[in-house]
């Protein structure tokens, strides 16, 4: 197998192209602590199955992982409770904004998928019930898989989200009214905001995502997920991972991916490598403009895709 350093020239070409692109979207401003990010920042990393990693630009700069963390909490919970999880959260694209409330009432408090906020709150709640510390479990997993013991929560981002968290609080209380949340809603929100606030770099996140390219096997060779569960998470990333632009992302990039409002996107080439790209300027759907463009170029230039 070729090493990920083979990708270095491709990454350099992509970075040059991004540099020449004038329009880069706008950073998320509904979380004030994220609004100040410079939309011209750009980093991209590729990790091989064996942990070799290469990158360009700001690929070692920590940024706010936000919804990228939803992939890892889903994996950690699915590994513990298996298919019982699917009685509490669905697996279909929502076709609605990530923080929408409307569908929840029609569907009796069962969120459409684990990657919209309502679904992620359910997953975090269930992981918290099983571990007693969902965000701590997540942080420890990310530290181990990335090999970076310095990864941590960003208390400023968590406090900023908490101070502007009415929508997530509404989602939590609404689902609790249907009996789909176990823990007190304030406890759940504290866990969820801490989870979203984790700061990590493209290198860290590409490395931490490798278990999905390794069909469920962690960095130390132990199994987190069955092969089938790894396939299932990759499939949900492809269909639901990039807000209500997942169809366009599949069309352009052709890989399972998950985006976050911090401007990061993780992507998986099963059996081959993982990627993480970061640029804080978002499009109107919430996906990083330069991030999607860079992944589009990567799969076009290398021919790597699940299709
Ligand atoms: N913490 C953010 C929120 O709940 C995450 C959103 C995202 O990255 O999609 O609003």
From TrEMBL:
Annotated SUPFAM superfamilies: beta-lactamase/transpeptidase-like
Reactions catalysed according to its record: L-glutamine + H2O = L-glutamate + NH4(+)
EC number from the UniProt entry: 3.5.1.2
Pfam family membership, one: Glutaminase
Keywords: Acetylation, Hydrolase
Family the UniProt entry places it in: Belongs to the glutaminase family.
Record text on subunit structure and interactions: Homotetramer.
The protein's name in its UniProt record: Glutaminase
Organism: Streptomyces cahuitamycinicus
């Amino acid at each position: 197998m070729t090493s990920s350093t083979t990708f270095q020239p491709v990454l350099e070409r992509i970075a040059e192209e991004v540099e020449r692109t004038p329009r880069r979207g706008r950073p998320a401003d509904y979380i004030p602590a994220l609004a100040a990010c410079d939309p011209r920042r750009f980093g991209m990393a590729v990790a091989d199955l064996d942990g070799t990693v290469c990158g360009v630009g700001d690929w070692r700069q920590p940024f706010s992982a936000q919804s990228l963390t939803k992939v890892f909490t889903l994996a950690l919970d699915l590994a513990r409770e298996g298919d019982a999880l699917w009685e509490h959260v669905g697996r279909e694209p929502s076709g609605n904004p990530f923080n929408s409330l409307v569908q929840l009432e029609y569907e009796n408090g069962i969120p459409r998928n684990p990657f919209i906020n309502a679904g992620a709150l359910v997953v975090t709640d269930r992981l918290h019930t099983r571990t007693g510390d969902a965000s701590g479990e997540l942080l420890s997993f990310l530290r181990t898989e990335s090999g970076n013991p310095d990864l941590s929560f960003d208390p400023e981002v968590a406090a900023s989200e908490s101070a502007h968290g009415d929508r997530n609080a509404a989602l939590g209380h609404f689902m609790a009214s249907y009996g789909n949340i176990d823990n007190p809603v304030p406890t759940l929100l504290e866990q969820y905001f801490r989870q979203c606030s984790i700061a990590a770099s493209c290198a860290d996140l590409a490395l931490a995502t490798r278990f999905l390219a390794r069909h469920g096997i962690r960095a130390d060779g132990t199994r987190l997920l069955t092969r089938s569960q790894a396939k299932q998470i990759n499939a949900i990333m492809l269909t639901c991972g990039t807000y209500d632009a997942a169809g366009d992302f599949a069309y352009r990039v052709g890989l399972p991916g998950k985006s976050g409002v911090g401007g990061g996107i993780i992507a998986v080439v099963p059996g081959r490598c993982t990627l993480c790209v970061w640029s804080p300027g978002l499009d109107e759907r919430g996906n990083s403009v330069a991030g999607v463009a860079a992944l589009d170029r990567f799969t076009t230039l290398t021919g790597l895709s699940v299709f």
